[in-house]
């Protein structure tokens, strides 16, 4: 799996500003993320809450049969969209690091298993 496999399809995975928050204060916005669930909601909420400018960040799934989440961000002074972008970038970096670490561990495991199998064959041949 390459990092290009992790890029969402923009035709399916859309992001919009909830109509109830359009035109209001830039520091308090609700975003609707289509075709997403608790996986991205909780991860993104965690990353956004690490930002000291954030006063509140939470998400909800309106109904279990709907594939969307509502993500609410409230900041002290920065526009919420900047905080969202930063959170998405940071989440992507963490995800890519986890993927790289996992792939490296799998490679090391396979290499060690191969070396152990070769050593086992050599020992059996010497008897």
TrEMBL record:
GO terms for biological process: transcription by RNA polymerase III; transcription elongation by RNA polymerase I. Keywords: DNA-directed RNA polymerase, Nucleus, Transcription. It comes from the Eukaryota. Residues 28-97 form the DNA-directed RNA polymerase RBP11-like dimerisation domain. The keyword Transport does not apply. The keyword Nucleus applies. It is found in: Nucleus. GO terms for cellular component: RNA polymerase I complex; RNA polymerase III complex. Pfam families: RNA_pol_L_2. GO terms for molecular function: DNA binding; DNA-directed RNA polymerase activity; protein dimerization activity. Belongs to the archaeal Rpo11/eukaryotic RPB11/RPC19 RNA polymerase subunit family. This is DNA-directed RNA polymerases I and III subunit RPAC2. It comes from Clytia hemisphaerica. The lineage of its organism: Eukaryota, Metazoa, Cnidaria, Hydrozoa, Hydroidolina.
């Amino acid at each position: 799996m390459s990092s290009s496999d992790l890029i969402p399809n923009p035709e399916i995975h859309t992001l919009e500003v909830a109509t109830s928050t359009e035109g209001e204060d830039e520091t308090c916005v609700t975003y609707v993320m289509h075709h997403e669930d608790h996986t991205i909601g909780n991860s993104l909420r965690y990353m956004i809450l690490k930002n000291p400018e954030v006063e509140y960040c939470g998400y909800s799934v309106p109904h279990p049969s709907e594939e969307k989440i509502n993500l609410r961000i409230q900041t002290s002074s920065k526009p919420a969209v900047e905080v969202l972008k930063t959170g998405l970038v940071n989440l992507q970096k963490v995800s890519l690091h986890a993927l790289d670490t996992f792939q490296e561990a799998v490679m090391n495991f396979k290499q060690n298993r191969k070396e152990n199998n070769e050593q086992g064959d050599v020992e059996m041949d010497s008897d």
